[in-house]
Amino acid sequence: MKIINSHYIPLPEPRWLIVDPKGSIYEQLGTMTIVADATKEKGEGGITTYAHPVVAHTAIDTPEEKGDTLQIYTMLTPANGMVLDDVLLNDCTPLCLSKHRSLNYLRFNALYFKLTRTHYEDFYLEDFIEDLKFYAIKLIFPEKELQEIHITTFSDKEHAERGSLLINDLTEILFMVPFWAYADKEGVHIKWDEIFMEYVNQARAYLKINPNYRFHFSSSLEILEPLIDKLNNELNDYLERKEE
User: Which residues sit opposite 177 in a β-bridge?
Assistant: First the structure.
């Protein structure tokens, strides 16, 4: 790629926290635009433009750790930030303003859906929730302790040939289990025990948001009836809860 020109565009305060395609969280300080030669094979002229986020790793010490005052600090990044040269800005997702640092569960679900669909093999809900807490992002979730989870199936064009994604209503607390990861190519032999444990792992993650959550599952799909019974009868036995 022959670069013709580049330009840095700083962003004013308050800046956004963004999530890259692999789930890493940054504060976006600005945008680096690159104009490159895009001459075609037949000698026809042309240019192409790329936009890369310029970011910093920022975290907050909570008041419990540092008294009554929130202390923001920047970690392992130059004063002017660093360019994510392997990430395009269009592939990143805005998370929340760095000033407010809150995320409601509907926006969380949309982000969770996107990251799971594209990086299901190396995306872990519990780790992602820990990252959000590390950046002092408050998760605003339903307060009711009993969560009714109605499991449906979802297939998108990209993964239709690989099976379905077992999810529940996007407007409720979201469990997302990659069906195709636990089935053969034809979707005949399904590892139901491993699917069950994935629900256990995701339930454990939600206990980090509200340790009093209880989960009850249902579905209108006959194929899921054995899974539903096992989830309702055994899931809570796998969850480590604090002594009341």
Answer: 166
